[in-house]
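Q&A log
Question type: sequence-to-structure
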Amino acid sequence: ESPSLWVGEGRFLGELSTHAGALPERLFMACGTREYSGTRDHERLDVDGLLLQYACQAAATLEAKGLKPGQGRLLFQVQEGAGHHEGAWQWRLTGALRFLLAPWWAHFPPSAPPTSPQFPPASPAAGGPEECDQECAELN
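Response status: OK
Response body:
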C-alpha cells in the first residue's frame, strides 16, 4: 500500500528485477496519482509522476515474474488524485482485504454465520499494470 519505492533512488526496483527467490502467493499494491502533492501545501507534479512511475514499474516487474493479475495473484490499484495519507489507504482497504482474503473466504459455505464480515464491492479503480502504463505515459 503506497510503497516507498523512492528510497535509495529506486534501488528496490533494481533488486526486485534481479530477485530469483520466491514471491508471495498474492500481493496487493496501490498508490495515488498525487502521492507527494496530496500531503503538502504545494504541488510537485514531477515528484508525483516519478512515484507513480516507480509503482507502475514494480507492478510490471512483478507481473513479468509470474504474479499475474488475471490469475488472482496481483492486484495493483491507482487512485486518481489520492495522496500518501491514511484517508487514501482507508478507502482502498476493503478492496485489499477482499482480494487478499478471497482464498480463505472460499472455504466458508454460502450460509456462513451472520457474524462473518460482509465486504462492500471492490473499488472501481482496480486494474493491472497496463492501465498504469497509460497513466505513466500521460505524465511523461
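Response note: The chain has a mean pLDDT of 78.
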